[in-house]
Amino acid sequence: MEKKITSPLSEAEARALHCGDNVLISGVIYTGRDAAHKRLVDLLKEGKELPIDVKDAIIYYVGPAPAQPGQVIGSAGPTTSYRMDAYAPALLDLGLRGMIGKGKRSPEVIASMVKNKAVYFGAIGGAGALLAKCIKKAEVIAYDDLGAEAIRRLEVENLPAVVIIDSEGNNLYETGRQDYLSMGK
Amino acid sequence: MKEIRAEQITQVVRDLCIEANCHLPGDIKTAISQCRACEPFPIAQTVLGKIEENFTIADQDNVPICQDTGLACVFLEIGQDVHIEGNLKDAVDEGVRRGYTEGYLRKSCVGDPIERVNTKDNSPAVLYCDVIEGDQLKITVAPKGFGSENMSQIKMLKPSDGLQGVKDFILKVVEDAGPNPCPPIVVGVGIGGTFDKAALLAKKALMRPVDQRSEKPFYAELEQELLEKINGLGIGPQGFGGKTTALAVNIETLPTHIAGLPCAVNINCHVTRHKSAVL
After folding, report:
1. What is the pLDDT of residues A79-129, one digit of tens each?
2. Three-state DSSP class for A58?
3. Does the beta carbon of B240 lie under 8 angstroms from any beta carbon of chain A?
4. What is the pLDDT of residue A185?
5. Given the DSSP bridges, would you call strands B2-5 and A98-101 parallel, antiparallel or unpaired?
6. Partner-chain contact A180 B41, CB within 8 Å
7. B63 to A68: CB separation less than 8 angstroms, yes or no
8. Do the Cβ atoms of B67 and A176 come within 8 Å?
9. Is the predicted ipTM greater than 0.90, yes or no?
10. Where are the domains of chain A?
């Protein structure tokens, strides 16, 4: 059974999500990956304002393919999240509520998520054609020069994801594997 | 002597870039479906179902299977009786440029690894040329995504590490990678040669169909044994747990030095793409 959630996501809504939950995400989310994260954190270091309001926001780690004529956006699956680990805690401290990506996170990111009550969602890596169908509107709002790596504002409807790490730090990459290995024992 | 014009090569590379990125090879599709049928873990079945749905959409809509349309790895097998009229490297790079631009594929190439400015057309190709007998030119385009490339490793083992050392290293690479390279993965292994050649062998191993075992019986058995061990790790599709961590282990080998046992493991995701044409 899937839980429907809407972004921006409040702290209370984030806390109600648990590791392993299947969710369908609707609402407004922002894209950002390596180069955009570096620029965001550089701005913070300089004490400047960010081009997006990260409070209660969800950032999707994705660099979409270009839209074909008639498409809102090209294929748009998640990229591997650990490359954003160096930058994520600074954004979580500003109230970032969710991240969508794939793959492991560092202990520092997980600790920051627990402190700030944030959620890490996994979308299916390599399923870019399927996931693009859930994106109803896409608009570049910062760093257009970065091409696929620009920050985009997306309006999504029922984007399927799984809660990998919840706001208490429970981690599906550990529990899922244990559950499988202990099956039938 | 057969004449092939550079422009012909450009056109074929262009078409192969688009074709490879939008249509998954049949052997990979079959392997994913077979694994789904034998997968006992519910969340893993669901994930494999979504993966099937995804490559079906890509087929029908002619869109990239994955947004990471990769660095364009291009392998040429050039018959020694072929003469190419024009600049071969430029012809291949122009094919990549056209394929990635006209095919609405993502441009994922930066011109310098430290400066990191995007080349905006995904050129240049990562180009390999082998000279073979005959008067044909075989062109293979294998776009390589970096989620899985980043999880690849090489180790210069000692001869005393032997077969056990090779097995342990391959399993360690898959374990270290965990959920990061988008399992189910294809594991390309190169053993022997030199440092560089082992890595190239591992990459070439990824282009062998996943339903085709090594021609050498010893390595065919080793491939099977390692696949079973990897699928016993429990990582599962996307790392959510399950049986289906890998679709295949493909091993290629070469003679090596008396002092060495190079072993390279090149990981590919379930979007293991490659498409060939012969001129």
Report:
1. 999 999 999 999 999 999 999 999 999 999 999 999 999 999 999 999 999
2. strand
3. yes
4. 66
5. unpaired
6. yes
7. yes
8. no
9. yes
10. 2-181
